[in-house]
């Protein structure tokens, strides 16, 4: 925050005669200088910080004015459109004087200083150059990148790294004096220490629409984007299970590579709680620990808590270790705290430890690993779920390589021990035991620009030992299933037109065949195999099951055809159509439910999508039964996006006999002009002015997503809210309803005030909106708080 840097020499009196746009160049310590030196100046609207090596070197000074006069080593005066540059400092004024014996520079009349992205203007500034001590009277300051600024009665420069401002205000609203800013932060005094990256505001009051909403006798904040310890804005939530939830996080910057966030919480129905997060980033490892504690839950009448752990690191010998674990205190945690979900599956919490090492020798590459995976299953009395098997341990190796003649091979060998975390009525007939398996493949691919062909042979062998007898009385058994597969395709392309639009059309036929013998596996345990979902990738898969424990017998051919229309200029796909069907040459006896598949032709899978209609996008996927002549499953979606912050989407999902749902999502202005429309309406306005020019006449947006079960005739989940963009502040009110059972749901209300350029206050609904509304856009760039940043940032 410097006004001047140095003036070390002056221009002789003989050179001080008035001349149009006279230029003078003075060097530090020079006794005399030429009368005038023509030095071309390149205008720069934003000065860059000096390189580290240049900060300690004497810097030249370039002075430009309509008139420059003075005497060496005494007094230099410049008048008329004065511009002074030294390093990354630009000073502009009507008049400038420099007293060399006192090392004192005075600038008066429309003084403007630009330094490292900040602009200061005012009537008068005075500075002792070498010691960098002085003041700026009644300055107005601007931060163009943030679109914010403010005023102060006086700014004092204590030394090159410290300054203070008196009676300062700060806002991102328009500051032309025509209207009172919608929000303003007022402070009695602000002290800034740039070496310590610390600012301290005394007597801080935040006013919104003229009403004080926050106050603090002392407020500490960072002076740049670096992390700094301190209190963060409070989070306020309201839900039907916990009542009013007030959390005030404290961010603790332990070190450049370690930090912690400690958040005391008060829930009106449940009582006091505490959340803590610790993050670390070292040269060879990084991780995060999350803890939630509720010592005395007044609703549940017990102590409750949750733990999350993430660790990823390198060990000696190029071994990599990975730890990921989530645990909660009780089965009702996911229901009572749905906003604090620990995983993508709230009722299945994984705990995983892995030790891996990659290797490469010649054409062979692979990985050796030892892993363990457990699950915490959160059960419900009215809605039980089956527990997945735990693997403790899982030890194996996989490798790939090439042989002569273009052959490629892949091998996976693995040993597992399978157990169940908790056995209940659903698990009484499920065995526990061990398995050793070998999965080996040899393939010979041929590829060309016009097509490809790849035959391959696969061997799937497994050996089992169970703790209790299998259905046939054995405790040890095994099976070996060889299979042959081949797939290939062609690629055709031509240029054509579609509704007068130049496009490039492709035609891509594909054929896939599998031959696998029948092996009776009905008595063998099934630890990890499930039938694949019905889609294009499943129809072209070698095995109808995922996992190892089941291998489908097959003598079948799958054919598919896809055509695409690509814009000839941009390459964007404007149309996509596809069809896939499987032909069985014999019955498939190994199935998930044990009932053989006897139909010769499978259901037809149809897919399509287009963005040919301006502002519209359509996608469709259908499973059509030729035997029943009806659709078994369907997903049909449409999205309309005619402009910024305008999107409407609808998705219809059908699984015949199981579910039928309709999903509606939207983000749409209800009233007022969007930022782009305000900018177009004010041709003389900058983008920042257009954003700020909302005032109380800003823009209202409606946002939401509703999932409606047509079969049950009820809304299952919903998110509905309003956003108000006033330019320099944004208000959000969002209500979320999450189903936690067929007759139970949790409702949450989130209210947030975002002061653009300062902070967000209240509960944060942005993640909910991004995750639930297709095509949702933030009204402003997402500036995360230090506690929201990843340790890898």
Account of the protein in words:
The protein is mainly beta. Among the domains are: 126 residues, lipopolysaccharide transport protein A fold (Sandwich), CATH 2.60.450; 115 residues, no CATH class; 84 residues, no CATH class. Helix content is 4%, strand content 57%. It contains five helices and 48 strands. It has a 26-stranded antiparallel β-barrel. Strands 7-8-11-12-10-9 form a six-stranded antiparallel β-barrel. Strand 23 and strand 24 form a beta hairpin. The longest helix is centred in the last third of the chain and has 7 residues. The protein is elongated. 26% of the residues are buried. The N terminus and C terminus are likely disordered.
Number of helices: 5
CATH topology of the domain at 1-126: lipopolysaccharide transport protein A fold
| Ends distance | 28 Å
SS class: mainly beta
Report mean pLDDT, rounded to a whole number. Answer: 84
Please give the number of β-strands: 48
CATH class label of the domain at 1-126: Mainly Beta
What is the helical fraction, as a range of percent? under 10%
Rg calculated over all Cα atoms: 35 Å
Shape: elongated
Oligomer designation: single chain
User: How would you characterize the largest beta sheet?
Assistant: 26 strands, antiparallel, barrel
What percentage of amino acids are in beta strands?
over 45%
Unreliable stretches = 1-39, 43-47, 683-696, 783-793
Architecture of the domain at 1-126 in CATH?
Sandwich
């Amino acid at each position: 925050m410097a006004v001047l840097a140095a003036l070390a020499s002056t221009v002789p009196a003989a050179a001080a005669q008035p001349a149009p746009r006279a230029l003078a160049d003075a060097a530090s310590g020079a006794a005399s200088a030429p009368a005038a030196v023509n030095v071309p100046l390149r205008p720069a609207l934003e000065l860059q910080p000096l390189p580290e090596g240049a900060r300690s070197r004497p810097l030249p000074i370039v002075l430009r004015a309509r008139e420059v006069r003075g005497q060496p080593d005494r007094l230099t005066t410049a008048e008329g459109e004065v511009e002074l540059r030294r390093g990354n400092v630009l000073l502009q004024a009507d008049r400038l004087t420099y007293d060399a014996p006192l090392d004192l520079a005075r600038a008066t009349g429309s003084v403007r200083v630009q330094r490292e992205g900040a602009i200061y203007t005012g009537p008068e500034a005075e500075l002792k150059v070498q010691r960098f001590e002085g003041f700026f009277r009644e300055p107005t300051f601007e931060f163009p990148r943030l679109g914010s600024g403010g005023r102060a009665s006086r700014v004092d420069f204590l030394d090159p790294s410290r300054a203070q401002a008196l009676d300062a205000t700060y806002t991102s609203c328009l500051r032309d004096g025509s209207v009172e800013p919608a929000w303003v932060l007022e402070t009695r005094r602000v002290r800034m220490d740039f070496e310590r990256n610390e600012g301290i505001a005394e007597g801080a009051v935040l006013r919104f629409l003229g009403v004080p909403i926050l106050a603090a006798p002392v407020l500490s904040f960072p002076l740049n984007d670096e992390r700094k310890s301190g209190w963060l804005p409070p989070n306020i939530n309201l839900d039907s299970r916990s009542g009013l939830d007030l959390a005030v996080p404290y961010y603790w910057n332990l070190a450049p590579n370690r930090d912690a966030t400690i958040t005391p919480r008060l829930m009106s129905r449940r009582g006091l709680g505490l959340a803590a997060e610790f993050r670390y980033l070292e040269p060879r490892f990084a991780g995060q620990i999350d803890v939630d504690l509720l010592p005395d839950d007044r609703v549940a009448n017990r102590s409750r808590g949750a733990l999350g752990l993430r660790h990823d690191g390198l060990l000696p010998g190029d071994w990599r270790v990975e730890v990921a674990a989530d645990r909660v205190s009780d089965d009702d945690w996911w229901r009572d705290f749905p906003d604090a979900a620990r995983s993508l599956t709230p009722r299945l919490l994984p705990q995983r430890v892995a030790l891996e090492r990659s290797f490469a020798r010649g054409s062979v590459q692979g990985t050796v690993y030892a892993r363990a995976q457990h699950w915490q299953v959160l059960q419900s009395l009215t809605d039980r779920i089956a527990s997945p098997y735990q693997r403790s341990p899982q030890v194996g190796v996989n490798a790939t390589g090439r042989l002569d003649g273009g052959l490629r091979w892949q091998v996976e060998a693995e040993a597992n021990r399978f157990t169940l975390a908790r056995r209940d009525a659903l698990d009484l007939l499920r065995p526990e035991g061990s398995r050793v398996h070998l999965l080996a493949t040899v393939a010979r691919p041929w590829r060309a620009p016009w097509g490809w062909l790849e035959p391959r042979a696969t061997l799937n062998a497994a050996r089992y030992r169970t703790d209790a007898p299998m259905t046939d009385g054995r405790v040890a058994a095994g099976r070996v299933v060889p299979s042959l597969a081949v797939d290939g395709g062609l690629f055709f392309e031509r240029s054509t037109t579609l509704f007068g639009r130049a496009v490039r059309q492709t035609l891509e036929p594909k054929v896939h065949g599998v031959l696998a013998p029948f092996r009776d596996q009905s008595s063998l345990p099934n630890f990890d195999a499930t039938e694949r979902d019905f889609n294009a990738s499943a129809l072209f898969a070698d095995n109808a099951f995922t996992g190892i424990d089941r291998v489908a017998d097959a003598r079948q051919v799958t054919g598919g055809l896809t055509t695409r229309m690509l814009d000839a200029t941009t390459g964007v796909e404007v149309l996509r159509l596809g069809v896939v069907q499987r032909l069985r040459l014999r019955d498939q006896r190994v199935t998930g439910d044990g009932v053989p598949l006897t139909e010769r032709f499978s259901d037809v899978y149809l897919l399509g999508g287009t963005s040919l209609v301006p502002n519209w996008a359509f996608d469709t996927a259908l499973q059509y039964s030729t035997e029943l002549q009806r659709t078994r499953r369907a997903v049909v979606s449409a999205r309309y996006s005619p402009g910024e912050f305008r999107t409407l989407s609808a998705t219809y999902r059908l699984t015949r006999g199981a579910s039928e749902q309709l999903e509606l999502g939207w983000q749409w202005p209800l009233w007022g002009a969007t930022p782009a429309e305000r900018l177009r309406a004010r041709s003389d306005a900058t983008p920042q002015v257009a954003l700020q020019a909302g005032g109380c006449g800003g823009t209202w947006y409606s946002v939401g997503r509703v999932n409606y079960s047509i079969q049950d005739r009820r809304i299952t989940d919903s998110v509905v809210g309003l956003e108000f963009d006033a330019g320099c502040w944004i208000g959000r009110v969002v209500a979320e309803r999450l189903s936690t059972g067929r007759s139970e749901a949790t409702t949450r209300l989130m209210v947030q005030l975002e002061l653009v350029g300062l902070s967000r206050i209240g509960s944060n609904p942005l993640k909910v909106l991004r995750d639930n509304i297709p095509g949702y856009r933030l009204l402003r760039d997402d500036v995360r708080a230090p506690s929201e940043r990843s340790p890898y940032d």
